[in-house]
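Retro notes (design track)

What went well: tokenization of the new backbones is finally stable.
What didn't: we kept losing track of which sequence belonged to which structure.
Fix going forward: every design gets posted as structure first, then sequence, in one message. First example under the new rule, 143 residues:
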């Protein structure tokens, strides 16, 4: 008895991806929410959202745009918060650092005001091979 062969199917559950999610992600995340909240809203995991991003170029573009819009939305809210005395600045700073990777720029100047501590190049003029070997050994021994 010959069995009817079924077409090869990928293992696992069928994808829940729907092209309409492109518009939904733009509205939801673009309004200031994040990927985790969106995944909960539509009943999938965050990993699934990132898998869709990798497999569906149109969803990838919508997600990129939504994430930028979300940051812009929060920037506007931050500008409003700056003048609100009831806002906890440390908490707001922590939120933005964790959510968007914002950080304070730290720059340390290691030069002295008169440049006396600045590194200066060392020039050695070598006239013969023995003299060159002597200078090399002095430099190596100094380390």
């Amino acid at each position: 008895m010959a069995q009817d062969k079924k077409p090869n199917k990928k293992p696992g559950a069928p994808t829940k991806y729907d092209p309409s999610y492109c518009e939904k992600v733009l509205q939801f995340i673009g309004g200031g929410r994040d990927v985790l909240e969106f995944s909960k809203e539509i009943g999938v995991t965050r990993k699934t959202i990132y898998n869709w991003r990798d497999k569906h170029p149109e969803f990838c573009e919508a997600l990129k745009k939504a994430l930028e819009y979300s940051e812009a939305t929060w920037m506007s809210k931050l500008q409003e918060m700056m003048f609100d005395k009831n806002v906890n600045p440390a908490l707001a700073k922590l939120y933005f650092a964790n959510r968007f990777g914002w950080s304070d720029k730290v720059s340390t100047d290691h030069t002295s005001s008169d440049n006396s501590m600045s590194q200066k190049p060392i020039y050695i003029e070598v006239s013969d091979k023995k003299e060159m070997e002597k200078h090399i050994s002095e430099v190596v021994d100094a380390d």
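Added context from the reviewer: The first helix runs from residue 21 to 30.
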